[in-house]
Design brief:
single chain, 257 residues, 16% strand, binds NADP nicotinamide-adenine-dinucleotide phosphate
């Protein structure tokens, strides 16, 4: 469907914008004058704080609840997005960042069907079906960034479900780019290395041994921070990188190279 918004303010929708990489992305985009709709799963309070910071940067910002594991709610979510856009005097938005995610420490030996289903729902089915559902609300010439992981390229114990699911979203990115090219929508995938956030119980940030091990595996000699990743996502949504399409960009300081 062809689509162009009525407002001059560009608008981004970031899933999982209440914490970590998504939060940093929201704030980087706000600093660039881009309005934001961010989603949270359980953490409304943090989401509202992020909105307040984005608004203080001078842009429209709004938080909506969304559990990306529940694809049967995506239609109702799209209706909420439409209403949110109206409050921003827009019909459509420009940039979608499929960021929301949860970790899994399953191995080949102990991984269960339940865990496979959940990781599939969050890391592949959600980017696929949420993007499909929201496409009529995205302006032609817009941009999509999916979030993968270094673990799609290298293997580590305890990531036998999570890593392959992230590999799947990398392949999906190329198919999205192919199909959305006629609408001038570029689609790329950012693969962070180990980043010090709440992810996986905050292990990279809070466990000194893990943090040190990550630093040892990383050419630039430290674990990543949300502020290492958010600016890259924001840059991929800028006009400067408008001709970058269907690419995987690892943002890992040179981890396990
Ligand atoms: P985080 O700090 O744990 O934040 C996760 C975010 O996703 C939160 O906003 C959370 O919402 C939301 N979320 C979690 N489960 C959700 C669900 N079922 N439905 C909707 N939203 C949900 O994680 P992060 O480190 O920023 O990770 C962000 C993305 O980067 C994920 O896709 C992750 O796989 C990927 N990644 C992370 C790392 C890393 O080392 N941190 C490395 C590579 C890739 P609430 O606040 O409401 O819970």
């Amino acid at each position: 469907m062809s689509a162009t918004s009525t407002t001059s303010q560009k608008i981004a929708l970031i899933t999982g914008g209440s914490r970590g990489i998504g939060r940093d992305t929201v704030l980087r985009l706000a600093q660039r004058g881009i309005g934001v709709i961010l989603t949270y799963n359980t953490n409304r309070e943090e989401a509202e704080k992020v909105c307040a910071l984005a608004q203080a940067a001078g842009v429209d910002a709004l938080a909506l609840p969304l559990d990306v594991a529940k694809s049967d709610t995506f239609g109702a979510f799209a209706a909420q997005v439409r209403e949110a856009l109206q409050t921003m005097k827009a019909d459509r938005f420009d940039y979608l960042v499929n960021n929301a995610g949860t970790s899994s420490t399953a191995t080949l030996s102990n991984g269960t069907a339940t865990e496979l289903d959940l990781q599939f729902a969050v890391h592949f089915k959600a980017p696929f079906l949420l993007t499909q559902t929201l496409l009529p609300l995205i302006n032609d010439g817009g941009r999509i960034v999916n979030i993968s992981s270094g673990l799609a390229r290298f293997a580590m114990n305890g990531r036998a479900i999570y890593g392959p699911m992230k590999a799947a979203v990398e392949a999906l990115t190329r198919y999205m780019a192919l199909e959305l090219g006629p609408r001038r929508i570029a689609v790329n995938v950012v693969a962070p290395g180990a980043i010090a956030t709440d992810f996986s119980g905050g292990v990279v940030r809070d466990n000194p041994e893990v943090n040190k091990a990550v630093a040892g595996h990383t050419a630039l000699g430290r674990a990543g921070l949300p502020g290492d990743v958010g600016p890259v996502i924001a840059a991929l949504l800028s006009d400067d990188l408008g001709w970058v399409n269907a690419q995987r960009i690892e943002v890992a300081g040179g981890m396990l190279i």
